[in-house]
Amino acid sequence: MAEVMSTSRAINAAMRVAMAEDPRVFLAGEDIGVYGGAFGVTDGLLGEFGAERVRDTPISEDIIVGMAVGAAITGMRPVIEMQFSDFVVNAMDPLVNQAAKLHFMYGGNVTVPMVLRLPGGGGTGAAEQHSQSLEAWFAHVPGLKVVAPSTPQDAHDLLLASINDPDPVVLVEHKLLYKAEGPVEVRGSLAEVDAAFAGTVPRRTGGDLTIVSYSRGCAVALDAAEALAADGVEATVLDLRSLRPLDLGPVIASVTATGRLLVTHEAPGPVGVGAEVVAGVVGSEAFDHLLVPPVRVTGRDNPMPYAPGLERATIPQVEDVVAAARRLMAEDD
Amino acid sequence: MEPLQLLAPDGTLTGDVPDGLDEDRLVGMMRLMLLGRRLDQKAIALQRRGKLGTYAPLSGQEAASVGSSFAMDPDVDHLVPQYREQLAMLHWGLPLGTYLLQRYGHPRGAELPEHRRLYPQQVALAAHAPHATGLAWGLRLRGERAAVICHFGDGASSEGDAHEAMNLAGVTGAPVIFVIQNNGWAISVPLHLQTRGVIARRADGVGIAGERVDGNDVLAMYAATRRARARALDGGGATLIEAVTYRLGAHTTADDPTKYVDADELEDARTRDPLTRYRTWLTGAGLWDEAREEAAVAWIDETVDEAVRVFDAAGPVDPGAMFDHVYADEPPRLARQRAEYLAALGGGA
Questions:
Q1: Positions of chain A with pLDDT lower than 50, given as ranges
Q2: Is residue A209 domain-shared with residue A185, that is, in the same domain?
Q3: Which of A169, A192, A215 is the last residue of a domain?
Q4: Which residue among B105, B195, B260 sits closest to A305, beta carbon to beta carbon?
Q5: How many CB pairs under 8 A join A and B?
Q6: If 0-12 CB within 10 Å is exposed, 13-18 middle and 19+ buried, where does residue B97 land?
Q7: Which domain holds residue A245?
Q8: Which residues in chain B touch residue A64, judged by CB atoms under 8 angstroms apart?
């Protein structure tokens, strides 16, 4: 039975389910024990599972991820929390050069079933080095999977699916979503969630344009769609959920029907997920159905400013998506 | 490895007063330490009122900061600080008002003193330690007689950057002094989960000098750093100083230490307060009294009040500032974003 809970509780519940069921699952990260994690996501798990399985580590991101790779290839199921996604830059060698490649380089003789949780995104006043949306980096790397839930239920399910998955998975968590609440059906076991990643799903349907996003961008897109509906413009909002693999089928189908595509995300535009989505659509059968060129509404090209007003201006807001959608609607009138 | 100590916790002098400290400087250290303690209170109050962003209190670590700073020469030496080195930054000439603006994210907070021997405070852990090595190596290559001091914490000392910076400093003989403020905590993680070794001993592993110092003893911190500086200038290479101290406050204003700090342990740490220890000795030596304390407090209040006036007078942040300095040479795409954004603001959109 579903109950209403926050995204952070939903993730916490997923870890509890996995740890209770599978002794191979363990957690490691900075301040995840008695402190419960910088954002409270691991709160209470130390008391339940003990310090060996809820491991406070030294501040050494390189060895945390490197250790997880070693543990994973020898049969464990590490779930790693980067305190802030930005700190993963210190762990790019074990993640990109090792975790992503060992299955391939060892001829399939090992798998790397590790999960790396990355609390990212801006809007919390955490400044340049604690606010980035780096998901495109990881989606670019063969061998990694990247998922980015937008709802508490998906956060719960995608974490369980990630733990079940034989490949290394990067779980993109937006810090502003941690407190967002929604109905969550807590799974009874890992097996309840299909190991295959669920693909793109509609969060709203409308015939006038297609808005594509993921993670916190979905909330922005949905609010924008409501504002547009007040003007009589009905948008479909699609949630990608997984960035690699990327399920473009529903996007292509939707754009074929609406003829208009808008992609929005908080990460900067250049060489980003939005570029991949647009390229996939214009290279598909939907091309002939496009009424206007697709547009992207993304984070600006500057580092995230510390000053509160400027931070907001760097992140795409509902009004930015609405304005871009109105321009899309006007262009073919 | 017993920490070097010149002042016992009860304020008794157990060694000699180090060279280089005349009466003015002995008093100056006390005043700067007091300013630090008072600044914490004021800054936390400002943060709670929404005026500052995140603030990292330094209470308990005043002696480690001030003693190591006074042993350097800000007229020639370079400071590469981590957050929590407010006092070192002030000693290098950063106006307090500028510091407060920095803690708000105001672009004017990025203004550094003209002399450019002070670097912006580093927030990414140990990310500045390699810079310090590079800076020091550069000084040597240019034949300048000067040294670099770089502070970070016991938590940051676990980063690979810390090790790599010290190792390269050893290989190059760079004139750099790493001061590791071992305050017992990395947010909620106590030292024994950070490392099982003695931090100062890492110096042996990379072939640089190492000293373990009572970080709550401003005279010992001064003496050790002065020795390290002389070594650096004489071609003797780098030094690692482990300042054994204790974080009396929160990690930052975003932290709640009551979740993990044992109240008894904290009370015990307060008995080793660096301010009390130094004040006791200074008073006994005839260099400090109530009148001097009152004068110092008046000076501190005026300094902080003036800084807050500067802060308030800075005005709102210019909306275009977020596009400034992304590149030295602004590319057309960014120029377009700037123009569109400012036009939209101007048009009331």
A1: none
A2: no
A3: A192
A4: B105
A5: 99
A6: buried
A7: 201-331
A8: none
- Measured between beta carbons, which residues in chain B are less than 8 angstroms from residue A36? 259
At B349 the pLDDT is 42
- List CB contacts (< 8 A) between A86 and chain B: 124
Q: What is the CATH number of the domain that holds A148?
A: 3.40.50.970
Q: In whole angstroms, what is the distance from residue B4 CA to residue B63 CA?
A: 13
Q: Are A62 and B160 inside 8 Å of each other by CB?
A: yes
Provide the CATH number for the domain around residue A321: 3.40.50.920
Question: How many Å lie between the alpha carbon of A187 and the closest alpha carbon of chain B?
Answer: 30
Q: Could you tell me if A314 and A167 lie in one domain?
A: no
Order of strands, sheet of B176-182, starting from the edge strand that comes earlier in the sequence: B78-80, B148-153, B176-182, B239-244, B209-214
Domain ranges of chain B: 23-317, 319-349
Do the Cβ atoms of B337 and A130 come within 8 Å? Answer: no
**Cβ-count burial of B322 within 10 angstroms (0-12 exposed, 13-18 middle, 19+ buried)?**
buried
Residue A166 and residue A23 in one domain: yes
Q: In percent, how much of chain B has pLDDT > 70?
A: 99
- Mean pLDDT score of chain B: 96
Helix axis angle for B274-284 and B218-233, nearest 10°, is 90
Domain B23-317 has CATH 3.30.365.10: no
Contact B118, B112 (CB under 8 A): yes
Which helix (H) or strand (E) segment holds residue B125: the answer is none
Contact call for B104 and A307, based on CB within 8 A: yes
**Structural domain count, chain A:** 2
Rounded distance, CA A207 to CA B242, Å?
A: 66
pTM score > 0.90 for this model? Answer: yes
Interface test with B, best of A32, A52, A302, A315 (most B CBs within 10 A): A302
CA distance A306 to chain B (A): 4
Pair (A150, A238) in one structural domain: no
- Chain B residues with CB-CB distance to A301 below 8 A: 326, 333-334, 337
Distance (Å, whole) CA A219 – CA A216:
6
Asked if the peptide bond before residue A245 counts as cis, ω within 30 degrees of 0, the response is yes
A25 and A174 share one domain: yes
The answer, yes or no, to whether ipTM is higher than 0.95 is no
Cβ contact (<8 Å) for A310 and B54?
no
